[in-house]
Amino acid sequence: ERGRFEHFMLKEIFEQPESIRGTMRGRVQPATGTVLLGGLRERLDDLVRSNRLIFVGCGTSYHAALACRQLVEQLTELPVSVELSSDFLDRACPLFRSDVCVFVSQSGETADTLEALRYAKRRHALTVGVVNVVGSAIARITDCGVHLNAGCEIGVASTKSYTSQIVAIIMIALLLSADRLSKQTRRREIIDGLAALPTAIERVLMLNDKLRMLAVGVLRDAVSILVCGRGYQYATCLEAALKIKEVSYIHTEGIHAGELKHGPLALIDQEMPMIVFATRDNGYEAICNAVHQLLARGNPQRMIVVCSEGDGHFFQGLGVGTTLEVPHTADCLQGVVNIVPMQLIAYHLAVARGLNVDQPRNLAKSVTVQ
Ligand code: M6R
């Protein structure tokens, strides 16, 4: 039921404070600083003892894993790789018994991810599912797993699954590092951040009207849009670009800020809208440099900077046309906050361009053929 919302996509974007609460319910315990994941309990020893973690998924699910890689590496101190299901299969990626493969999928039925799971089982890796749909193939075949509990997602564009997938993977990293003394301060910061996340998202949703104005204004007739960030926000760039292109049909590219000078700067002209994630974390100085580089070559009026609350004036002072101030949170959770305005921009662009928001052309909700 769409209720008061005109489309499922909008409903699902607005559900995120609640869907994230669903993902954490009974699992994240801020009072004691603990995380419980019933679906992993029986295999916890094997998980903690593994030599390597490999995340596998397609599209948005792949981006969610990418968004968490740095944190998983930091908390587990294990090598972590993130693979596209199709590419993982194409390469017949070497796997060992001591490897853990985590399959990330909203539907639990995506053909490439399912095939990658069967491949991992043949090679005796320990398989973990991060799946929304209970009883789906991936949920049934994996050795253990975590359900997203985000509620049913109907719009073809994944929105609430993305934010819940990030929260679920972060909970796994917290669980795997529970006994590491050296990680306790960091774990505490993240657990407190998780508890405050639904309220932070509620605050971002209040930007809805401003985001609609952007979609009917500077972005509507763009031929191409560039989305730039680095560190934890690199995944946000890729996911924002996917969201915008799949529902608005405007070519949008996510670019790592460190790569700008290695080619993409040549794309910048007076027409191109540029979106930059410049929220505060330890890459802030570097991303400010990227903002300067883009301002010098492009049209400042067409630049949109997503920044931390209180930093808007600074970027406006540099000439940036639009600033979107969002609540600050732990670095690894900032992507959950930052993607929400991008989901809304994608939605309003699709509506402004008269497109079928919930069912974009040529796409299906679950890709069950390879
Ligand atoms: O159901 P899955 O998470 O396995 O689906 C994977 C992709 O097809 C999916 O994330 C797709 O990229 C999104 N619906 C795009 O918004």
From TrEMBL:
Superkingdom of origin: Eukaryota
GO molecular function: carbohydrate derivative binding; glutamine-fructose-6-phosphate transaminase (isomerizing) activity
Keywords attached to this entry: Aminotransferase, Glutamine amidotransferase, Repeat, Transferase
Occurrences of domain SIS (ranges): 40-183, 215-360
The keyword Transferase belongs to this UniProt entry's keyword annotation: yes
Keyword S-adenosyl-L-methionine: no
BP terms from Gene Ontology: fructose 6-phosphate metabolic process; glutamine metabolic process; protein N-linked glycosylation; response to dithiothreitol; response to endoplasmic reticulum stress; UDP-N-acetylglucosamine metabolic process
Protein name per the record: glutamine--fructose-6-phosphate transaminase (isomerizing)
Organism expressing this protein natively: Cyanidioschyzon merolae (strain NIES-3377 / 10D)
Full-sequence range covered: 409 to 778 of 778
